[in-house]
Write a structure and sequence with these properties.
Number of helices: 20
Strand content: under 5%
Oligomer: single chain
Distance between the termini: 52 Å
Shape: globular
Order of helices and strands: HHHHHHHHHHHHHHHHHHHH
Largest sheet: none
Helix content: over 70%
């Protein structure tokens, strides 16, 4: 019996990795088709308002602010649906609970129990319910460690950022880059768990006991209900926080402005200069020195700040800031990211900067909802503050090493 358990543990991890790879391959490949359809609709809507409305703030708000921001996020809805389809099937089939049992020995080596595995995998969907699920862990020390490392699990809100940058710079190796990012989050979580166990939570109180449910065939009704629930949340975000944030970002990047600029279309160079001198541009340039060693410019620093409210806002902010003037035609966001910056002559994003950026997004400051969940489940703002400082520090160091070493090599 012991040898059977050992065999299951040996083959269980490769099977889990294969399922993860399959999930990312389906998310990127299958999601590409409906994503292109939605993108075409967004482009048509943008062109319609560009041709219909006269130059001025209203036109710029609709085209660059609302369509550029919300439209930049809504195109990734199919990818989110596919991701949640896989997670729902794995949960409803009973695979997650059995994976937790198989992973118990590995989890013990990092100072946790197999029961911590389920909240961590749930974090691939959303960190907030995953953190709340940690309350099922009897051991307080294991519960707190699992709560604190959960934000390193790459939630679905980060998926639009990955799809955008991986699709732009690494389309031929998309599923492997996806998997590498998720594995990096797991590795950082493992190292963090060992450090927390060694220095902050040295004792563990409760043995791992778990009842295994039988395997069962997921029902179509339950799976579709799960998917619709997540879709509804995503759509509400776009109609709420993402819409409001896109308008705020547009306003701060559009003003101050003189009357002459409102009466005629600006060239790309004039738009870039106007943005740089805007309220948002000045704030971004003040923050930029902290992230320049990572390869980021002021626009990226603003996107990262907006992402502290919700990670989807990173894409909507980039969509607004790179919506430039109508002299760029119907270029999509990927093309705008790879185009030379009119002020520097170099593109703001390269493959190396894209990798550095995705690593930082993966590891840095959890969203505000996750911070609130950490405070609620740990019972103290101390651990919420610790998560903010520790995660951001780890993100900065990792992105710095990747960018600086990559710059030397390439």
């Amino acid at each position: 019996a012991a040898s059977d358990v050992y065999k299951r543990q040996v083959i269980g991890f490769p099977i889990f990795l294969f399922l993860m790879w399959l999930m990312f391959e389906a998310t990127f490949v299958l999601g590409a088709y409906p994503m292109e359809w939605i993108q075409s609709g967004v482009d048509w809507l943008s062109s319609f308002f560009s041709e219909t409305l006269s130059p001025g703030p209203l036109k710029d708000l609709l085209v660059d602010g609302i369509i550029g921001g919300v439209g930049g996020v809504i195109v990734f809805l199919p990818n989110i649906l596919i991701l949640y389809l896989f997670i729902s099937v794995m949960e409803d089939s009973g695979y997650m609970a059995r994976a937790a049992f198989i992973m118990d020995k590995i989890m013990h080596k990092i100072g946790l129990h197999g029961k911590s595995f389920i909240p961590l995998v749930m974090g691939f969907g959303c960190n907030v319910p995953a953190i709340m699920a940690c309350r099922t862990i009897e051991s307080r020390s294991s519960r707190l460690i699992t709560i604190l490392i959960n934000p390193f699990m790459s939630c679905s809100a980060r998926l639009p950022i990955y799809v955008l940058l991986i699709g732009t710079f690494f389309p031929r190796h998309a599923s492997f880059v996806f998997l590498a990012l998720y594995l990096l989050g797991i590795i950082v979580a493992v190292i963090s768990a060992k450090l927390l166990r060694k220095f902050l939570f040295k004792t563990d109180e409760t043995p791992f006991v778990m009842e295994l449910p039988p395997y069962r065939m997921p029902t179509m009704k339950a799976t579709l209900r799960h998917m619709w629930g997540k879709t509804e949340q995503y759509l509400r975000k776009m109609g709420g926080i993402i819409l409001v944030a896109s308008i705020i970002v547009w306003f701060l990047s559009y003003f101050p402005r003189n009357e002459a600029e409102d009466l005629r279309p600006l060239t790309v160079e004039e738009t870039a200069m106007q943005q740089q001198n805007s309220y948002l541009g000045k704030l971004g340039q003040w923050i930029a020195p902290a992230v320049e060693p990572l390869g980021f410019n002021w626009k990226v620093s603003i996107a990262l700040i907006s992402g502290t409210a919700a990670k989807e806002l990173i894409v909507s902010t980039i969509g607004v800031l790179y919506s430039e003037s109508e002299t760029e035609g119907n270029a999509n966001l990927s093309q705008k990211l790879t185009a030379p910056n009119p002020l520097t002559g170099e593109p703001d994003f390269t493959p190396l900067i894209a990798i550095s950026f995705m690593i930082f997004v993966l590891l840095y400051f959890p969203c505000l909802a996750s911070i609130a969940a950490i405070k609620q489940e740990s019972g103290s703002w101390k651990w919420a503050a610790f998560s903010v400082i520790y995660n951001t520090g780890v993100a900065w160091v990792c992105a710095f090493l990747v960018y600086q070493i990559g710059s030397l090599l390439f």
